């Protein structure tokens, strides 16, 4: 089974979490794109959606779903998005597609976060995937020096400008035995907008695509 087939399978499974008549949040990336494809069949049941990126907003509009400004929305029933890595506590590294800040904002508002991934994303320990950090452009060198002090090896994602007009540093080999602590620590560096560690707000449900089917994992209490 190809990786795309696994992504498509979890995206289809996520449609069961969409609550008809409720506003939902939609993530960014290739797995989220399969979800948007499926969402097209439900468009008459969806009053609107909040997108985690400009690219996702464009795709939603193309299939006839109204894209709403988060500031006009009181609540989001469910947020469906992929991840670059996810552990057993359903903590994630996200931001491979540079959409981490808006993803984190939509996830913060959503009552339920459903993560959709193929099995390659499941890890025992987060950190093999470099941790994306969104940075105000003028602070890039300063933040990079601070990340080195924390033991990481930041690499500037050349040529990428986020939807918010910022830049991305991908941090390799950052020691992070406790994901939540590292998330907070990085947030405290002046010039950092967001980091791609999703541990303070992990997923609630993981739909994991494996060769033997879609597994459902709930966040441990
Ligand atoms: C984008 C993300 C994506 O969810 C993550 O990169 C996974 O992408 P894909 O579904 O293409 O593997 O965080 O910023």
What features would you describe in this structure?
With about 220 residues, the chain is an alpha/beta fold. It has two domains: about 140 residues, Rossmann fold (3-Layer(aba) Sandwich); about 70 residues, ACT domain (Alpha-Beta Plaits, 2-Layer Sandwich), CATH 3.30.70. Helix content is about 25%, strand content about 25%. It is built from six helices and 13 strands. The strands form three sheets. Strands 2-1-3-6-12-13 form a six-stranded mixed beta sheet, with helices on both faces. The chain has a four-stranded antiparallel beta sheet with strand order 8-9-7-10. Strands 4-5-11 form a three-stranded antiparallel beta sheet, covered by helices on one side. A hairpin with a 5-residue loop joins β4 and β5. The chain is globular and about 50 Å long. The protein starts with a helix and ends with a strand. The mean pLDDT is about 95. Bound molecules: ribulose-5-phosphate.
Portion in helices: 25-40%
Mean pLDDT: 97
**What's the N-to-C terminus distance?**
33 Å
Number of strands: 13
Give the names of the bound compounds: ribulose-5-phosphate
Tell me the strand order in the biggest sheet: 2-1-3-6-12-13
Largest sheet: 6 strands, mixed
Q: Into which percentage range does the β-strand content fall?
A: 25-35%
Number of helices: 6
Number of domains: 2
Reading off the top of the CATH hierarchy, the class of the largest domain is best stated as Alpha Beta
- Unreliable spans: none
Shape: globular
